[in-house]
Write a structure and sequence with these properties.
The complex is a heterodimer of chains A (450) and B (185). Chain A contains 20 helices and ten strands. Chain A has 450 residues and is mainly alpha-helical. The longest helix of chain A is centred in the N-terminal third of the chain and has 29 residues. Chain B is of the alpha/beta class and 185 residues long. Chain B is 43% helix and 10% strand. Chain B has a four-stranded parallel β-sheet. In chain B, helix 4 links the parallel strand 2 and strand 3. Chain B is globular and about 55 Å long. The C terminus of chain B is likely disordered. Classes of the chains: A mainly alpha (450), B alpha/beta (185).
Chain lengths: 450, 185
Amino acid sequence: MTLMETTTTQPRETRNMLLNVGPSHPAMHGVIRLVTELDGEKVVKIDAEIGYLHRGFEKSCENSTWTQAMPYTDRLNYVSPLINNFGYCGAVERLLGIEITERCKYIRVLMSEVSRITDHLTCIAACAMELGAMTAFLYLMKAREYLYDIVEDVTGARLTVSYGRIGGVKADLPEGFPEKLLSALKQVERELADVDKLLTRNRIWIDRTRDVGVLTKENAINYGITGPLARAAGINYDVRKAFPYLVYERVEFDVPLGERGDTYDRYLVRMEEMRQSIRIIRQGLQDLPGGPIAVDAQGQVIESFDLVDEAKLGHTAGFANVTSTVDPTLDGTEKRFQARMAPRDRSVILPSKEDTYGNIEGLMNHFKLIMDYHGIHPPAGEAYFPVEGANGELGFYVVSDGKDRPYRVRCRPPCFFNMAGLHTMLEGYMVADIIATFGSINMIAGELDR
Amino acid sequence: MTEAAEDHPGFFTSRLERVIGWARRYSIFQYPFVTACCGMEYMSTASGHYDMDRFGAGLPRFSPRQADVLFVVGTISHKMAPVLRRVYDQMCDPKWVVAFGVCTCTGGFYDNYATVQGIDTIVPVDIYIPGCPPRPEAVLDGLIKLQEKIEKQKQLSYPNVRELKLAEEMADATASGSRPGSRKR
């Protein structure tokens, strides 16, 4: 039998092609490996391999004190680090059974929403860029810069902020914060309107995203998917509404819901959520409690390093009531802010800088909280505290055995569940749709792999 | 080319060196190997507000074969390390590596079982930009330092050419039976 006869008489064997996407793929942000099985251009099967950015978050937390774990939480979802900070703080506070001050609650809500906007901006920007819409990317990055300026103003860092503290926040808001934030929001709104014009009714954008990467309601529930993905699929679940924390029950906002659960819906949900976040911030700024700052009766101002020098020499007679200026990085931690910022619990909150530098009780209190084996000691027990992260329910489950270090810190990262359900959104579509769908999921490797 | 000529290049050769150096300095095609948090600052640096394009580094190439500067942006875990090495090996000479962020410089505060303690254990690094993550200004500073390094380095013979020569010598030496490398001294 010749070769010719073989090929004509017998059906040819066809096999699916294996295509490896990632972990360092040009059109995908985040490190994940998708082992894709293709039939022609159609995706038959997707196998996602994760763990390329495993940095040992949970183990590292066990080796640090309760406060020292804060920087690790920054780097979970590094697009919205403030929400992680506050989530972790909330869990430990629940364990300690302390209530933070009203002003701190409002600050946390304000900064969480700023973070949420930066996260959604980044997600849409990256997704648009990967589909070739470079202009939208640049516009959204520009909008993000305005918010980073605000974050830097408040926390001292642009990205990895470590702004949360157990029992409060690092420092009070800087002067002129409401005006700055409002003007930044105006800029962001303008950029959003521009992007809205560029994308929402754009033929190419709609063709690439409409009815692509559909996540059904059932799958969303089965895989435990929350956040914008679930809401785009029509599931009305938002931790801010379902289990209100901080002061979310006092502000008015809507939860946008999608109908089809496709990539386009996810885009619309994110756009609307940003507008709702802006709405929350505007209300929060109006209600922000605080009143005038208590000014010291004597009104004396001494540089902090002079204060230390004098104190070393024992010249502390007039120090009880002085206001000292502190290093700019400690701005907002002075005594005049302390009263409205911190609960009166000396076993949790650092004393004001005047007290630390100016009197022995303050100094001792400071060292008792800072030194190894002396810091915060939550009672033995466990607590879970969920917050609405930018990608969904972000929960921290902390276990204490009564020591100064966490026995266990478990994080429920929303991305992990999104990735578990990833294959249901990709299978049955074209190869090119992987990029669009994956972009709209906003996978953050730091949070996924921890 | 004899060894004497290599040590004292002629007028034309030195002019050529400078022209190539100038051209290379302002035509950096980077490959952003983005893994983690630093990617956010990389995006900020690359987009309009800080604008890397001012320094001739505005076009990231997402294929290692088209790029000549490898930006390693973010933590490299042991699982990711072979991928990084492979990307580096795929790049054509001349190539440079920038360690972006403290995780790539030293492992940063991830001093644990999962993280590579500095990418210079895997690939040679030209510029280290510390910071967790570095501010865009720091990135631009690092970029300018890299440009200076690129301009000042010897353009016409790369380390690999030297390696090739050495390999040739060794092959010759083994063929003739003498000890390799002894001729040079």
